[in-house]
């Protein structure tokens, strides 16, 4: 398969992983958090994206390994480039990390184990990285109607601050999970959200989330 085709597929899939979920929620979102609308996403390092050789030799195979949740292949790539700390680098034009891609993969036990191994190697700060659509890997897991609560728990257990990092237009992970019909994930997020008192919570989105959680009871 030619390199240009692979790069095109990666770009399309990178955008698709977030575009449809953000489009679905966009008409429902009005959090009133004007301060967040002016913030830039917390992007991973994009140095590999501007280097065609590095992109083809590192980003493409790491993307494929993450989509397949192939830890053997991924560990070889990570081991060959230990000096780069690749888990903090963007590997798609949408600035998705390997964890973003794996969190969007088909839910399975293999996917759970792959994500757990990634998270174990990542710092708390790397878990907080967002793609261009302001999605953390946790937000992507919450946005999937077939989302895997076990991978969400893995991420939250390492860094509870993820629950207070909003996606586009200030939509919180708890809201995303609720709109996706993720009952167990909603309960997990609510129980670990410190009663919705993080820096990005506003009276308006706190009230909206109280209503969402109440609707599950």
From TrEMBL:
InterPro entries: Ankyrin_rpt (IPR002110), Ankyrin_rpt-contain_sf (IPR036770). SUPFAM superfamilies: Ankyrin repeat. Pfam families: Ank_2. This is Uncharacterized protein.
